[in-house]
Write a structure and sequence with these properties.
39% helix; two-stranded antiparallel sheet; ten-stranded mixed β-sheet; alpha/beta
């Protein structure tokens, strides 16, 4: 038989040791941000029905969750609030003693070195469930919303937030928040902008967790069309020009091409938000024995890193931290 010449790529896959030598992409605990839902009330630890393993915590139960996060070596958390009272302009979002503000103070007092990120939006605090001010014709008003978002960011920074993460998708929100923070003496507080946030069906379970579903219409007039790719570059470019320090792409799994596009075009750290629907699908399939949860999650999150994410915001963070210890 005539000898054939071809490349033997399998030589570099022969053993676990060789595979480790040539491995290109790594997932680390330091890459993870863990979301926490903080609710007003007492002795609350309510599991979110559509997100097994994810809970809403009252302040008196929040410490136990944060202690576990720290013990696992997860370096940062992001807080979402569930207030008892809501109104048309989301007053509790920027109240000095709002639920997120109080949660930030508690965490920073208990674990000063844990990085605490504050989600900055109005939807969880408005009685209509939209991310901005609404007029009599049910139109979401961009510019009047900016002042409220800036007030919210300042109140969160005053409470001790290390990073402000605005998720509202109003035009100009980074400029408004940056100016507000700077004028209030928080020029060193970075902004982790939800720069590329699509109007996605993958958010469904989050709306159960945060009680933030809109009471009318949808968010397609301010969140992005999932069919669009170049629009993501325009959105990210605006936020970088306005002073964003991080760029979030949300969701992650169906938007790996967008993560790579944003990574290729901007020098800021890129955050992939592994959203609630992505989490819920994995949990449901695993509960039915259809998939290996650990392997699916590690493969998915490594794919986000490979696509260009520097940081991953994920509800799987605690499990991932444990699995990485096993490896």
């Amino acid at each position: 038989m005539k000898e054939l010449f071809f490349q033997r790529h399998r030589r570099l896959r022969k053993t676990a040791g060789i595979r480790a030598m040539v491995k290109e992409t790594y997932l680390h605990k330091e890459d993870l941000i863990y979301p926490i839902f903080v609710a007003e009330g007492e002795n609350i630890k309510n599991e979110v029905a559509s997100m097994p393993g994810v809970y809403q915590f009252s302040l008196d139960r929040l410490g136990e969750e944060v202690d576990e996060v720290v013990d696992l070596g997860i370096p940062s958390v992001i807080l979402f609030g569930l207030p008892k009272e809501k109104d048309a302009v989301g007053t509790q979002a920027f109240h000095d003693h709002g639920i997120v503000q109080e949660g930030i103070r508690l965490i920073k007092d208990r674990h000063p070195h844990l990085v605490v990120i504050a989600d900055t939006c109005l939807c969880e605090y408005t009685d209509h469930g939209h991310c901005g001010v609404v007029d009599a014709n049910e139109q979401i008003l961009n510019d009047p919303s900016l002042d409220l978002l800036a007030k919210t960011a300042v109140s969160q920074a005053q409470a001790g937030a290390d990073i402000i993460a605005p998720s509202n998708m109003m035009d100009g929100f980074v400029t408004a928040i940056r100016q507000g923070l700077d004028e209030a003496g928080f020029a060193d507080v970075p902004i982790m902008s939800y720069a590329v946030k699509y109007a996605s069906a993958y958010y469904g379970p989050f709306r159960d967790a945060a009680d933030g579903a809109p009471k009318f219409g949808d968010r397609k007039t301010y969140q992005m069309d999932y069919a669009n790719r170049m629009e993501a570059i325009r959105e990210a470019a605006s936020d970088v020009e306005e002073g964003a320090d991080f760029l979030i792409v949300k969701p992650a799994l169906a938007y790996l091409d967008i993560i790579r596009d944003v990574k290729n075009n901007f020098a800021t750290p890129i955050v992939a938000y592994n959203v609630s629907g992505e989490y819920a699908m994995v949990k449901a399939a695993a509960a039915n024995g259809w998939i290996n949860e650990k392997e699916i999650v590690l493969e998915s999150l490594t794919g986000m890193k490979r696509a260009g994410a520097d940081i991953i915001l994920t509800y799987h963070a605690k499990d991932v931290a444990r699995w990485l210890e096993e490896k």
